[in-house]
Design brief:
The complex is a heterodimer of chains A (111) and B (114). By secondary structure, chain A is an all-beta fold. Chain A has no helices and 11 strands. Chain B is 0% helix and 56% strand. In chain B, strand 5 and strand 6 form a beta hairpin. Classes of the chains: A mainly beta (111), B mainly beta (114). Chains A and B meet through strand 4, strand 5 and strand 9 of A and strand 5, strand 9 and strand 10 of B.
Chain lengths: 111, 114
């Protein structure tokens, strides 16, 4: 079945860039998403990328997709303490009902 | 308005109680979802409604009963739950099912079964 893998923890200093990586196995993935979850809260959609794109930039966020290697990354520029959260990578295949989530990467920002 | 609103935010219930979780969206989305999230785990899909009809039930026990009274509302009726059902219950909606639109999530209901 489909699988989405992420490293569990990342720690960066405030002001530095963060890069959160994700790999997936489903070659028919059509959309790939990054969600942010703050403690005790729901999931906030940060950004998404369609599988025929290789890069998407949105203010401090840059998503890179390497479809050949099935590798997705989220770069957060000028990381702030408010960026501390768990970041979930998720994918969906065409015609599927279900988002497949990674286990989430906990980003800790050190002041 | 890109909000999915869930009520209540917190719920404590006994194993013999009957309660309901509510979810509302006014984005005109035709697909709505219930997810269950245990601590430090990703969300797990429970149910999918498409055009107010149940289209996916991920082998969820019958003590969880979803209901979609109209295109804006999604309920989850709870009865005779177990302590291991304690979790964050997330509602989501998307314009359609399938891989062409993003899903928006509510803030969740944190359920504790005692």
């Amino acid at each position: 079945g489909e699988d989405v893998e992420q490293s569990l923890f990342l720690s960066v200093r405030e002001g530095d860039s963060s890069v959160i990586n994700c790999t997936y196995t489903d070659s028919s993935s059509t959309y790939l998403y990054w969600y942010k979850q703050e403690p005790g809260a729901g999931l906030q959609l940060l950004t998404y990328i369609f599988s025929n794109m290789d890069m998407k930039q949105d203010q401090r966020l840059t998503v890179l997709l390497n479809k050949k290697d099935k590798h997705l990354s989220l770069r957060i520029a000028d990381t702030q303490t408010g960026d501390s959260a768990i970041y979930f990578c998720a994918e969906i295949s065409g015609g599927s009902y279900q988002l497949t989530f990674g286990k989430g990467t906990k980003l800790s920002v050190i002041p | 308005d890109t909000e999915v609103t869930q009520t209540p935010k917190h719920l404590v219930m006994g194993m013999t109680n009957k309660k309901s979780l509510k979810c509302e969206q006014h984005m005109g989305h035709r697909a709505m979802y219930w997810y269950k999230q245990k601590a430090k785990k990703p969300p797990e899909l429970m149910f999918v409604y498409s055009y107010e009809k149940l289209s996916i039930n991920e082998s969820v026990p019958s003590r969880f009963s979803p209901e979609c009274p109209n295109s804006s509302l999604l309920n989850l009726h709870l009865h005779a739950l177990q302590p291991e059902d304690s979790a964050l219950y997330l509602c989501a909606s998307s314009q359609e099912t399938g891989g062409n639109t993003e899903a928006f999530f509510g803030q969740g209901t944190r359920l504790t079964v005692v």
